[in-house]
Design goal:
Elements lengths: L11 H9 L8 E2 L5 H12 L10 E7 L2 H4 L1 H11 L5 H8 L7 E8 L7 H21 L3 E5 L7 H7 L6 E12 L43 H6 L2
Antiparallel strand pairs: 1-5, 2-3, 3-5, 4-5
Helix pairs in contact: 2-6, 4-5, 4-7
């Protein structure tokens, strides 16, 4: 095993950290944000994820400093494309989305042309988001993984330079110092999620956490078919 890799090493501190980690709401983030050196550490950590085919099916767009303000015009125009009757106050609110935290990192899922299924490549981009959050936390910063409406707005995605049908926002990761300690929230009960395989036993599928009767959010997986044909 290379000295630069860890595949199996006991770390009670890391385990305790994973069992207690908590996202921090953007409304509770303040300056200062990460330094350039800390940012690069986070990005290196984000790239060390399981990656079938070694495709790196993701990339990053960094919004820091004045860049968070410069993007506000595009956010305003994108929101108007969805809500043409929006009030000036609402437009101001939506335009300032990236100003809520000192640093915002867009993780873009870019599906590569490969034998590796598109779904696996998308999951890889999600893993990059999670590693980014963990690295930010380990450096002493709060982080929150969000999408919100602008992650799915064609106008805003085009402004960022995303290729339609192939590139999608896996998440916007907001990072900053914290103004308060977040409270714990309810966590899943393992009894409602874990199955030990038995051929004649029905699966437990987490029904306790379903919002039965409320229907499902739309599944926009058409692009999976587009990229695999």
């Amino acid at each position: 095993m290379s000295e630069n890799t860890i595949a199996a090493k006991k770390s009670p501190e890391m385990l305790d950290y994973l069992l207690k980690r908590r996202s921090v709401k953007v409304l509770d983030m303040v300056e200062p944000g990460p330094s350039q050196e800390e940012l690069e550490i986070m990005l290196r950590a984000a790239c060390r994820v399981p990656d079938h085919g070694k495709l790196s099916p993701f990339y990053f767009i960094i919004f820091g400093g004045d860049k968070r303000i410069q993007v506000s015009k595009a956010l305003r125009e994108a929101y108007l494309s969805e809500e043409p009757e929006a009030s000036p106050a609402k437009l101001d609110l939506e335009a300032a989305r990236f100003e809520r935290a000192p640093l915002v990192i867009a993780v873009v899922s870019r599906i590569r042309e490969a034998k590796v299924p598109a779904w696996e490549q998308i999951l890889c981009a999600g893993a990059a988001c999670q590693n980014l959050i963990l690295a930010a936390n380990a450096l002493g910063y709060g982080a929150q993984w969000l999408t919100e409406w602008y992650a799915f707005n064609d106008s805003f995605k085009a402004h960022l330079g995303l290729e339609k049908g192939r590139e999608h926002i896996a998440g916007f990761v907001y990072i900053g110092s914290t103004s308060s300690q977040p409270e714990e929230r309810p966590r899943p009960d393992l009894k409602e999620l874990v199955n030990y395989y038995e051929s004649d036993k029905p699966l437990i599928k987490g029904n306790l956490y379903n919002n039965d009767g409320k229907g499902f959010a739309p599944l926009q997986f058409e692009f999976l078919l587009e990229t695999n044909t």
